[in-house]
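Appendix C reproduces, verbatim, an entry submitted by the partner laboratory led by Prof. M.T., so that reviewers can inspect both the input and the predicted structure.
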Amino acid sequence: MSPLALSTCWHAERVTEGGQLLQEAVRLGFSSVELSHNTRYSLWPGILSARSNQDGPAIKVLHNFCPVPVEVLRPHPNAYEFSDPREPARRLAERHTLSTLEAAAQVGATLVVLHIGSAGPRRRTEELETMALAGGIGSRPYVRKKIDSIREMERAFEKTWPLVEAILLRVGEKASSLGIRLGLECRESMREIPPDDFWDRILQRLPAPTFGYWHDFGHAAAKDWLGLIDHAQHLRRLAPRLIGAHLHDYHPERGDHLPPGQGVIPFARLLPLLPREAHVSLELSPDVSAEDVRASLTWWNQNQPPRS
């Protein structure tokens, strides 16, 4: 089993040099990292220098887009989307994803995490969250809105998917040639594709081992709380194609990217469902203290059970 990696989303925006980015992870006890989507291009020379000198942790994963495209002023994994109805924007999403694959090959990473797009009306998830926090879960208005929203998203997905699939297959050819696997991440917003009942269908259309499922514990927990999925059932169903996971906790009132044990996720029941060979990255909010990052690593070492 691979050691727990630290996602640099926790500290990438606080450092000014790539070597410092990597050494901070080592200082906290991590032997490997996931370079996050907020890894600025200015950090890249220092990262390459550290890797060429074999100085610092192993880099196992890059999260698209990495490094941040120079024209993107605010780092965001959805800065460009494969699902964008505008062809120039889709071309940019594809081009920068290919650049991420090349960057991954430069530093020896074998996994790249992708968000694959969005479709349908906005703010449906936020509306459900508002109703849920007000105690409306299970009420007729809540159930009606949930069902209507799911139907809207599924219709929009059906129209959008052919555009996304065409790009993914081209990106997959490049990834395969580089020996890189692509993890398609589950997302917290209903608008981000695929709808949860469509995961099996799209994974059947995308060839293994190049393509796999990337489980995000916090995102799945948020959907579980809203009654959109059953977290354990969802994870168990997709485990055969699961290649990696983002580890963090979730609380309905505090959100996600919390240290494990500070939210409501039943990790003792869920962690055994991860395949033994799956990669796991700790993905914490920048607001989390260094002490809690260290504590999260200790928690992992003490709580990870044997995996299937």
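The CA atoms of residues 213 and 242 lie 4 Å apart. Additional entries are available on request from the coordinating office.
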